[in-house]
Amino acid sequence: MARRTTQIAFGVARLAIAAVFLTAGGLKARDPAAFAVAVDHYRLLPYPAAAALALYLPWLEIVCGAAVLWPRFRFGALNLLLALCAVFSAALASAWWRHLDIACGCFGAGPAGRAALLLDLVRSVGLGLVCAALLAYELRPARPGAPPA
Description:
By secondary structure, the protein is mainly alpha-helical. 75% of the residues lie in helices and 0% in strands. α1 packs across α5 and α3 packs antiparallel against α4. The mean pLDDT is 89.
């Protein structure tokens, strides 16, 4: 019974991660110019690099969000999403530390300022922790006769 509950919990977590990254990627892909400006506000990359990132990152999030739902691609997708969360958390922490008055740009336009950045940082770290937990679940040793996750 406990094993079935664990499977359900991790299945719900996979759906949640997929929904978050499909939504975030879709919103950014709809307006890459606005996302390029949001990336540029972090002052970490030259504008041409920020513009290139704004074109490709949303599609990476969309592909990884969808791939989390397929067992064959899940491990790679979760690794990429964990890496994205780590990089984005570092960018948010940097912006917060430097007192930048910007919006994170994760889900399109949103609130700006240090308090908003701190909440976005907590969300990014939380998403990263969920991705790490899902990765750990994927790496658990398989029991003979157990159904695939």
